[in-house]
Amino acid sequence: MENRKLTCIECPKGCNLSVDIENCRVMKVEGHKCPKGEPYAVSEIENPQRVLTAVVLSKGLSLKMIPVRTDKPIPKAKIIDAALAIKKLQITKPVKAGDVIAGNFMGLDVNLIATRDMT
Amino acid sequence: MTERDLVIVGGGPAGIAAAIAAHENGVRDILLLERDQYLGGILNQCIHTGFGLGYFKENLTGPEYAGRFIEKLHSLKGIEISLSSFVVNLTSDKTLTYLKPGMLSTIRAKVLIMATGCREKTREMVHIAGDRPAGVFSAGLAQKLINIEGLLPGNEVVIVGSGDIGLIMARRFLLEGAEVKAVIEIQKESRGLIRNVVQCVKDFGIPLYFRHKIAKIRGKDRVEGVDIVKVDDALNEIPGSGSKISCDTILMSVGLIPENELVEMAGVKDVNKIFGREACRAIFKVAKLWKIEN
Asked: I want to staple B109 with a disulfide (CB 3.0 to 4.6 A). Which of A67, B46, B94, B116 is the partner?
């Protein structure tokens, strides 16, 4: 049995978590002050994930860059590749916050969505 | 001269919230002045998540969070929003002069709320020695350049101070393809949120040096590097502990100061004592102060 210390990043409280791990599986989580702590610890050990935010170049719209994010977290190991892929995109039509910019982005079963209205 | 029941200076989160709250409490003659072309203030460049966890129980980005309040503001009747409007003068009887493209207007406010936010501290304010090359930016300016203007200010970055904007910009630069050489913090822990230390710095293996400071900035025309040195608990430099890091860009993330020129202009004394770091709380204190003095 291995014990690992994590800092929960679900909210600004930043709880210190103590996680018991056996065969790469989380057996027990302690130290969380809310229900988000346990799933975070399990995910962080077994399949760490992050929401990626970035900006996409626009053409012909009122601002040069449009902020975007993945609508669900993606594997941490894919973050840098995904950030590079976003740099190749371009938006040419007005968007509303929430509009899908790239569906099933990189085959990760997440959508890349705009986070700001832009005309 | 026109008179308005309420004038709010600043269309960032605090100014928008003040306008909505005033409307909810029955005020129907409101003028909101914003110097930028858009409402939302600094939230527009804070493209990362972490906003709205308390208020909306959702994990939103800055622009999304601002967007929800802007939409609400637009749905209310009796609030005039004046964009590209820069207040240049304020008197003690709450008369404001503001500049808008092509016009200069003067207006008197029965009640005035100042929601002018903060400005970042600069290299000069924390006394860093050395050369004076190009390539030294405040973290928030770099954030605006990358996230709004689409410009990458440098390729090899050292971040001075571990405030939240500095930590967030460490990740931003890295994801834009730059190399982040180090985050240098003089204290023994980060002054930013621990979650930002984890998700912005540790996630990417960026070196974070506590109890270190910049001894000197080097560079002829452009930044070429920094000399860093360890400090003891009394923050004195430890002799012989120096090392060099080469970089072309330095970001300063060493705190904020309130933008209080206008209230000073109006004769309010001891503004620096009134304002705290948290802009919103400070605004309420100033609003109260105005009530007392007027």
From this structure: B94
Identify whether residues B66 and B177 lie together within a single domain: no
Chain A, residues 69-108, CB within 8 A of chain B, namely 69, 76, 79-80, 83-84, 87, 97
Complex ipTM above 0.90? yes
Residues A10 and A43 in one domain: yes
Would an 8 Å CB–CB cutoff place A34 in contact with chain B? no
The model's pLDDT over A38-68, given as tens digits with 9 standing for 90+, comes to: 999 999 999 999 999 999 999 999 999 999 9
Residue A11 inside a domain? The answer is: yes
Domain that holds residue B91: 2-117+259-293
Could you say which residues from 37 to 76 on chain A have a Cβ atom under 8 Å away from some Cβ of chain B? 50-55, 57, 63-65, 67, 69, 76
Q: Which 3 state secondary structure label does DSSP give A86?
A: helix
Indicate left, alpha or beta for A23 from its phi (over 0: left) and psi (-120 to 50: alpha): left
With a CB cutoff of 8 Å and minimum separation 6, the contacts of A23 are: none
- pLDDT by residue (tens digit) across B161-181? 999 999 999 999 999 999 999
The DSSP call for residue B198 is I
Q: Is residue A119 assigned to a domain?
A: no
